[in-house]
Amino acid sequence: MPASPPVAADQAIALLHTLGAADIDHPGGTLVAHLQRVQGRLAVWGARPALRLAGLCHAFYGTDGFPTALLSPDSRTELAGVIGAEAEAIVYLYASCDRKATYPTLADADGAFRNRFTGRLHTLEPQQRRDFAELSAANELDLARIDSAFREKWGAELLALFTRFWPLLSEPAWSDCQAVLRTRSAPGVGASEGAPL
């Protein structure tokens, strides 16, 4: 049985340090600092404990936009043993997303999700789509807040993306998207699924 959320978070942070996340450069400092900010943003939005833990651990297997992995997707049981199966499943879902193939229809109930590890297409359950959208927003808004060059380059496209995702986002997340991206990004075109998010 996994540890309770505060203990699991402490254990996850210890594992992040053991695997070198504090030594990996990332906008705003290090990867571990970014992950902790994402977890904190999800907490501010009122996310449930499993989603907050997933925010803290969302880069363990790398992502479509950040290829550095701390663990192989073949080591899922190791992370699940620390943060629990529900949070780990969100981490894997986030890491496995082929964004170019998935983003255009993520908000559609029957939209296809493409797993970049396996190439498999499947339809997500509503909660999975909401979790994915919320974690995506927390991650990208942290980058937009912390890195003005990132915000200037991708802010308008991110706003277009999250406008498509808004039915999946909590009210606090959507408000934050507007506050960070509307006021701080240059006007631009619609979202590019090729953006390094």
Overall description:
The chain has 197 residues and is mainly α. It has helices spanning 5-18, 31-44, 49-57, 76-83, 85-96, 99-102, 126-146, 148-165, 171-184, and strands at residues 25-26, 29-30, 112-114, 121-123. 58% of the residues lie in helices and 5% in strands. The strands form two sheets. Strands 1-2 form a two-stranded antiparallel ribbon. A two-stranded antiparallel sheet has the order 3-4. Strand 3 (112-114) and strand 4 (121-123) form a beta hairpin. It is globular and about 35 Å long. The protein starts with a helix and ends in a 13-residue tail after the last helix.
Keywords:
two-stranded antiparallel ribbon; 9 helices; mainly alpha
Tally of DSSP β-strands: 4
Estimated structural class: mainly alpha
Q: Average the pLDDT over all residues and give the rounded result.
A: 90
Rounded to the nearest angstrom, the radius of gyration is 16 Å
- Strand content is 5-15%
Low-pLDDT stretches = 184-197
Percent helix range: 55-70%
